[in-house]
Input
Amino acid sequence: MKSLILLLYILLLSSSKGWAQETLDANDPNSFIFGGDQKSNTLSVEILPLAIVDVEPDPSGSLSFGASADDMEAGLPPMGGSGTNVNEELWLNFTHRSFNNQPARIYVSTNQVVPVGMTLKIEIIGAGTDGNYPQNPRVGEIILSESEQVIVYDFASGYTGDGQYKGYQLRYTIDNPEGVSLPTGFEVLYRIE
Amino acid sequence: MYIGLALIANISYGQILPGTLDVTGFPSMSQTVEELVKEAGADDNGVGFESTIDATLITFILDSSTDPITGATVTSSQNCSENIYRYSVYMHTVNAPQNMLVEAKTTFNSGVRFPTAILYDDLSSQPLGPRDLRPENGGAYIQIPNDGSTAIKVFEFVGCREDIPIQFRVKPSVLDVAGLKNLDVYYTVVGSLN
Output
């Protein structure tokens, strides 16, 4: 019985192996000089440059700040002391193929003015293990404004992997002691070039 | 009957006659915007892009020879009619970009028998089977190595054959710098008696 099971196992293994690749040492003329031949031609391939960037998770890549009613305390600012002014759930993905080895950067800015009394900061605090890209693009916080600032410095071609927990982990920090609101349609913009 | 027996004897015991491989076409492929990866974070080697079906045509026919007894010239056509061998075609590339996948394929019975019809085709028992072409991997694309020491078999055929079309598909990684790349594709034909 054990022999039968072993035989079935071997048969299953061999059937799952599929198509076996047959190869030849074509550098050795003896392999084709009698009754064969070898020739070549040129294959021309043109590939395009590529630069796309995304914030995950999809679809909106949105985040919210603010203390819950349970965390609010008379005498403290609206977003003080409970850690709710920090968000580390968004990840920055990119794919980039350079042209003529021109390095690229990723810039960050806002589409509207950050309200007076509020400070919005962003920092890359980690990197996922998928893909092939620089793991330490920049150290330190950036205070966001309408002016573009570099969040990922010069890199050549690369890709991060697609989705949350891939690419660069972002930390947003909001300092909002006066409790002002962001305007409707406020966005943080990323541009890769 | 006598000719049939003579053919079988020739196939079974004869030395493989020399032949010539002819490769025509300069395949050129350009990636379009629609063929680029659409999702940030993903590599660009998922879908790839293809050449035309007949980007390259290859032909293998036996060389003409001289009859050792009469001194008369035996044409390629005559040699291909009277000497049937099996040919395996292996492919590899040279100078392909490091992260670029190059694939090739042909279809079942592509190309044309040379000569178109011969006595062998009418034998009830054909030692090497019909003069057909059989692609490897069921006719699906096969990745071509950028290493001549591991050239990979793409198809085989019986008897001389003309104008076998080869189609290419390229899957470029974003790690390959954009622009025009020229790489050499090698075709190696190996004949056998069985």
